[in-house]
């Protein structure tokens, strides 16, 4: 009766884990004692892989469940685009830690934090309440597979982020 390994795959838990990692990377990008450029590189890859995997594997599947707000799912996709734009703006600043870099970092933090907060309150709570454990586990596996594929492809590079933003 080992349900624990299945729970590790719960798409909600996996997405929340990424959200916490993003918040940690924000702290590193703000800290003058950290390697801010490395933190940005890591964040860029995570944000893009996460958003692309959500859109490819999770959002469409969740729309099929009653009790998961379709409009919120659509809105989540729009917010991914806003976060990606803010990310690109930061990636294009050459001088890490400059005033411009700090300003664009705060714009990125604001866009992503707003999305994370909203997604956790609406989409993920809806998924927790209305999507069976087994289906959440399947979605978790699909999400992680797509996320890994994105990460392996160098999805966080400025060139790729620009491609996504320009559509």
Describe this structure in words.
Helix 2 packs across helix 6. The chain is mainly alpha-helical. The longest helix is centred in the C-terminal third of the chain and has 32 residues, at 99-130. It has helices at 4-8, 11-30, 36-63, 70-91, 99-130, 133-152, 158-166. It contains 7 helices and no strands. It is elongated. The model has no long low-confidence stretch (mean pLDDT 93).
Give descriptors for this structure.
167 residues; mainly alpha; 7 helices; 0% strand
How would a crystallographer describe the biggest sheet?
A: none
Provide the gyration radius in Å.
16 Å
Shape: elongated
Q: Averaging pLDDT over every residue, what do you get?
A: 93
Can you tell me the residue ranges where pLDDT is under 50 for at least 5 consecutive residues? none
- Percent of residues in helices comes to over 70%
Q: In terms of structural class, how would the helical and strand content be classed?
A: mainly alpha
Number of helices: 7
Distance between the termini: 46 Å
**What's the β-strand tally?**
0
Encode the helix/strand succession as letters. HHHHHHH
Beta-strand level of the residues, as a percent range? under 5%
């Amino acid at each position: 009766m080992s349900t624990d390994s299945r729970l590790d795959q719960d798409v909600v838990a996996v997405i929340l884990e990424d959200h916490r990692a993003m918040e940690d990377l924000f702290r590193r990008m703000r800290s003058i004692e950290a390697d801010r450029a490395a933190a940005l590189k890591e964040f860029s890859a995570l944000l893009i892989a996460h958003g692309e995997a959500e859109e490819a594997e999770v959002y469409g599947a969740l729309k099929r469940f009653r009790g998961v707000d379709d409009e919120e799912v659509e809105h989540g996709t729009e917010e991914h685009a806003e976060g990606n734009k803010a990310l690109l703006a930061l990636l294009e600043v050459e001088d890490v830690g400059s005033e411009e870099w700090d300003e664009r970092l705060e714009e990125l933090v604001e866009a992503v934090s707003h999305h994370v907060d909203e997604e956790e309150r609406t989409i993920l709570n809806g998924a927790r309440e209305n999507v069976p454990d087994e289906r959440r586990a399947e979605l978790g596996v699909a999400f992680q597979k797509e996320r890994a594929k994105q990460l392996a492809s160098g999805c966080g590079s400025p060139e790729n982020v620009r491609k996504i933003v320009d559509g």
